[in-house]
Protein 1
Amino acid sequence: MVEGTEVVRLDPGHPDIAAVRRAAGVIRGGGLVAFPTETVYGLGADGLSAAAVERIFLAKGRPQDNPLILHVAAPEDAHRVALDVSACARRLMERFWPGPLTLVLPKRPEVPDVVSAGLPTVGVRMPDNIIALTLIAESGVPIAAPSANVSGRPSPTSADHVIADLAGKIEMVLDGGPTTVGVESTVLDTTSTPPGVLRPGGVTVEELRDVLGEVSVLSAESAARLEGPVPSPGMKYTHYAPKTPVVLVEGEPDQVAGRILREIQARHATGETAGVMCSCETEGLYRGQADVVRVAGSRRDLATVAAALFATLRLFDADGVDVVFAEGFDQAGLGFAIMNRLRRASGGRIIRAHMGTGVDPG
Ligand code: AMP
Ligand code: MG
């Protein structure tokens, strides 16, 4: 059992190597270390030790059928865990590594089944973060790391989020400040023809098509569905949800705002309070109407929305409103990953703004 969780603050650009070496020692000893990546904080363990990896599932309360991603410090290290790295996978590594792209590759038998949840494949990624890369290199093993949150909660984009969820359950947290991308990696199955996006993320489908030509994609609806067979097991679980219920409102931006304003009025009429998560472009429409207004970022730069999404969702829990209405975003580019997370955070509570009695946002 863990006595207490040690939090080590590091300079993201020049991390103290002695502190990272100590963390690497914890990993080699079978312990759990949370560390920053460019996407979200990861909860790391020795990826070649079944006993260490099992502790990740316990600490997070993660379902056993949801496989973990193995993190490597260099593209060559993919060969340590993958039986075969195809020409297509190599091209993707050259273009996107280090970065938010996980490649699903045929698994080597040395990788414990608990990592891949019994699948014959393994997800591999090289993160774009100096602390993460140093930790992996110093550990000398591929590091298995899902997001460092309690399963079902919004993913952690700061060390404080990790501490809120996992203090007392893990040995160490490396605090490297807030993460930059803010949504998880894109998971791409390179064993299928054409390669298929199993989870949208920080590398966009458009960027993948630039390199590969054809790429198959689950529709946003099926990627967000909560039951039934799914090629990437993690996609079937309700996820990213704050404690406050989230209702996602999709459609044209002006219709969305109008619809949310009407929904707020309806809630107020029954004595309920309502928050809104919106873009800076529409923020003014809700001031004085919603009980809490939180801006996720700008519609003109979806990277700002991705970066702030999970932290903003977590903040609503402290606000104590009865419901949060989240504005939908355009699905192009990073919007695909953002909408995937919002749909799942809503647990299926989705309103299409143009359905039912339309409203003039005026
Ligand atoms: P997390 O680490 O919490 O971001 O979750 C990892 C995601 O990658 C989940 O959606 C998994 O289902 C997916 N994943 C990891 N390994 C594989 C694999 N071998 N095949 C398909 N999906 C995978
Ligand atoms: Mg996760």
Note: The first helix runs from residue 17 to 28.
Protein 2
Amino acid sequence: MEKTLLIVKPDGIQKRIIGEIISRFEKRNLRISAIRMLRVDTELAHRLYDIHKGKPFFDELVDFITSGDVVAMVIEGDNVISLVRKMIGATDPMQAEPGTIRGDYALEIGRNTVHASDSQERAAYEIGLFFKEVPKV
Ligand code: IDP
Ligand code: MG
């Protein structure tokens, strides 16, 4: 059983499609095992996007992910990392197939609605960033 981190980015929250995105994974019989809404601060954004430091779009990436609330969730299932990547579609929404989340809801590469981990190593790292503390109830 694998786990992956899925983030609904600020444009997804603004478009009021959190429920539709969660529904897609649930209808595929995947399990949402943790979920939270939060505002990502600059430090967390830098950790999430550490591999993109130095790229021309890095500042834009940090500005956007910190611009409004996001919903982060852990999704579990067999081969869930590659399955969720298929379900979100290509990074550039103009290249994303219809039927994928980006192919159905997004138009701009910088506002492509969702983030998903791309490997087991990144999934473990990214889940640790968003779900490292025991929640207070
Ligand atoms: P991914 O989200 O499909 O894994 P990555 O290459 O990891 O794509 O890039 C992270 C995010 O950075 C993308 O989701 C996208 O929002 C943004 N991004 C990637 N490439 C570009 C670009 O060339 N211009 C502007 N933004 C980009
Ligand atoms: Mg990526």
Note: Residues 81 and 119 are 7 Å apart (CA to CA).
Protein 3
Amino acid sequence: MSQEHFGMKIAVYPGSFDPVTNGHLDIIRRSAKVFDKLIVAVLNNTSKNPLFTVEERTELLQKVTSDLPNVEIDSFRDLLINYMKDKNAHLIVRGLRAVSDFEYELQMASTNQKLDENIETFFMTSTPMYSYLSSSIVKEVARFHGPVGDLVPVEVEKALHGKYARS
Ligand code: ADP
């Protein structure tokens, strides 16, 4: 019998995580307290031209969540709802920063619900100090060797230094 039949609330937090930031980590920590199990699922999206490979993104997430026993890191390339069926999960977690996130998130949540009526999306608002933080901004700062220590965990800072090492 599946875990969910025993009343376990399994949620999936999908995203690119290229790389994971303190904003993502804040959502992970807070939602891990709400759900019994949280699967952070790295999207293997070939159209986005990522800086870090899926393996690197997954490994960084594993390192920065190693103290959270009910958080599991995985990756997927399929449609999210198909992946969720495999995992027997019906709950999606997404973070909301500013109003600018809203329209896209609403579109995705309603599409996923249309594709599978049992899917529910939960939005967690960002802690104000992280509302303007994104993986793209972090990469932009790191590319020009600016300080990213307040924006990402130290493991990610090191990995960024590796990618943008001065030649
Ligand atoms: P995607 O490409 O799916 O948007 P991201 O890795 O950029 O993937 O984001 C994954 C999720 O994390 C999204 O729900 C996004 O809104 C949320 N998120 C990203 N940055 C932050 C932040 N600073 N605070 C809260 N939520 C965030």
Note: The chain has six helices and five strands.
Protein 4
Amino acid sequence: MPADKDAEKQIEALREKIRHHEYLYYVLDRPQISDFEFDKLVQELQQLEGEHPALITPDSPTQRVGGKPREGFFKVRHSSPMLSLDNTYNQDELSAWERRVHELTGVKGVDYVCELKLDGMSLSLGYDDGQLVRGVTRGDGTTGEDVTLNVRTVRSIPLSVPKEKLKKTGIPAYFEVRGELLMPTAAFKKLNEERESKGLPTFSNPRNFTAGTVRQLDPNITAQRPLDFFAYMLLQDGRTYFDHHSKTLEALESAGFKVNPHRKLVHSIDEVWKFIHQWEEKRDSLPYEIDGIVVKVDRTALQDELGFTGKAPRWAIAYKYSARAGITKLEGVRWQVGRTGKLTPVAELAPVSIGGTTVRNATLHNVDEIERLGAKIGDYVQVERGGDVIPKVAKVVEDKVHPRGKQEIDIPEKCPVCATRVVRTEGEVDYRCVNANCPAKLLGTVLHFASRGVMNIDGMGESLVNQLIERGLVKNVADIYDLNKKDLLGLERFADKSAQNILDEIANSKKLPLERVVYGLGIRFVGERTAQFLAEHFGSMDALANASAEQLEEVNEVGPRVAESIAEFFSNPANRKLVERLGKAGLAFKGQQKERGTKLAGKTFVLTGTLAHYTRDEAKQMLEDAGGKVAGSVSKKTDYVVAGADAGSKLDQAKELGVAVIDEGEMEKLAR
Ligand code: IVH
């Protein structure tokens, strides 16, 4: 059919164009067109593919994100172990390694490749006939987890390598690439802040965030987090393919993989040492974190001769940079209020230069940490910083040269921003401001309230909310319901239609059920599920607001800590007023009261396969009505896996973990 042939040609040309711009943007960091133009190309391709679905191929740029959340990950055995590296920390240790290389090979003039030691996680990519077919985590080194769907969303990873490129670079059609997956520091900071504002747990460093992201069961979540991948190994059947490591890196680069440009082929250990030094100075200028330098013997034949010791190759070594530290005086402590109301003590320091940056502030984390350090104002403290991460006070210096401080660090009784009394829940380290109207918390609170799983006010993102707050139009979430068109038209980028859209969204949110409103209040420890239990138990906002801590504890999954937090929230007059206004605005304050059974309280179930008499939702409902919990994946905490027909990987996991597997009939018996 000529029409389809035309379409096919057009589609392929468009794909090539998009791939080229993806490569320029994500691999070379040198975009030539704007994001807008790029999005237009992708939309055009989506449209064409929509009209000709038979022409969609797995390596089309539109197919990076696809598929539904998965149930778990399959284990995959590596073609050859994914090893770690031995570490060195000083010049002597590095020289000792070089001597050993000489001794074992009998070769004196050894060439080395110096690379940055990227602080991410290693990943293996499998390509069959030039197509990306597998992404596997390192796991225990021998076996990793199949994270292919997530890996496909990483834009610097090619979904396919064209035949001509393989030919030109000498890379075989079936090959494996290993490298480092990481999250750039700026993205880490931004995403962590977003999490903090939603009351979600934050990640302590980009590496953990990367690991958490690549192991997401839902590839759509991974796709929203900018991960980057640098290739540093090319294997075939588990063996190094090229005869020199430097050639491997060049070939990977020519084939379209992102290879770190900060690398060097050197001819002596002195040059290695120079490279190490240079990057110790410059490491802060990098957009991602490194924790050292990796030195590799260039010639594959020599690598093979050197072999491995236990878990690490003898042909490569890591030189680890030490944490950068400096000693300075602790002049004071101020308390910063985060978006969830959390108070963080910040050390005010006499300015000190650490690794080329002047440091004036460092985090003291929390009250427990202050106690652990035994810090007093006037003390000399050791301050450490890694990459772009906030400096921290590591210890108090106790020696004859540095006098000890005398002034105790005061823990504030009131929020430094709004002066509301602060609260420390039992068993918690952090003090918090519980005033929902505290300006410091406002942005995060409003964003949480408006977000998709909550009141679902589409379009009410950070830029709009910031403007609303700046102009004093929104001082708390109830103000959202007083906004009118004139207010919105006064803001940047708002025309009649966009203003009306927001007002419609706001009006629509009033139709959402009580549990959403409860969740939207942003009460600490009250997540989606707890909000639902609360709404069902009390049946109305009034009953919930007037419940005592004891009454609250009667609710499914509400323990003393959660009950106290809820009671605390409603005992604050400002919060009560806010809730009252939401009621007046017409939000759902009444719900369906429903008593859940307690027969299955504390029991966690996982459903898998197709049940004969229930849909998944019906089965879930039945188990939850009996007080049970239904989880998405099998873990050691799972009590029962309910297996229907064609049960998949969850059943295997249950067997592996020794979790009880029951059928539909047994589930009914338990729940009734
Ligand atoms: S080579 C057998 N090169 O460091 C060779 N690793 O501490 C091992 N890493 O698991 C990998 N940057 O995740 C290599 N340029 C680099 C690296 C690098 C970071 C990581 C890698 C490895 C860990 C070992």
Note: The chain has a mean pLDDT of 90.
